[in-house]
Amino acid sequence: MIAVSSSGKRFAALAAYLTRQRKGIDRVAWIETRYLPTTDPKLAARFMQVTAATNSRIEAPVYHVAIAFHPDDLVTRDMMRRIADRLLTELGLTDHQVVIVAHNDRAHPHMHLMVNRVHPDTGRAWDRWQDQVRTQTVLREAERAFGLREVRGRLHQLPGQEVPERAVRTSGEVRRTTRTGVEPLADLIRKYAAELRRARSWAELHERLACLLYTSDAADDLTR
Q1: Nearest in space to 102 (alpha carbons), one of 118, 90, 114, 115
Q2: What is the DSSP letter of 69?
Q3: CA distance 39 to 94
């Protein structure tokens, strides 16, 4: 599995993307929500924006995670749901408002998690610190538990997995990785810039990146 995450300001924009048809065809396989009174992503986005407004200090309350599986993986809805909930638990987001949308318009199964960083009861904002490390931990463990294709993640390995060779990085990239746990993808993005530029939103960019990783040699660039 491969996961890409980001933060944003408007839940409505992400919800619109998640429910948008692709080439006139509905691409939503299923939708689930957590701590919300509706399964309609657009209506849920309104509830989430109101909740986020209780904390005026948070400029980017939207936390978005796109998780892509290998095309050869036999993935069920229950499996995807369990992985999503395990990730939310590991990240400390179990009591937050969440919309989970699975898409079926690509060769590889994939799902999106739209999460409200602002807690609905306390109004406190969740901190993304080390989220990539924790995410890779969940993905590696889930791959082995469900018999999925194992990816050689840079930030976490299971027993028996080799540590990927690291490319030479600048001192600034090293400091940023140490501070945030996020590995730089600048080289990969430059290599596939033409394809990525066609994305019309951050959410679509995530999806295109995941698609590239599973349909080209870009996967080797990221995991070797």
Answers
A1: 114
A2: -
A3: 17
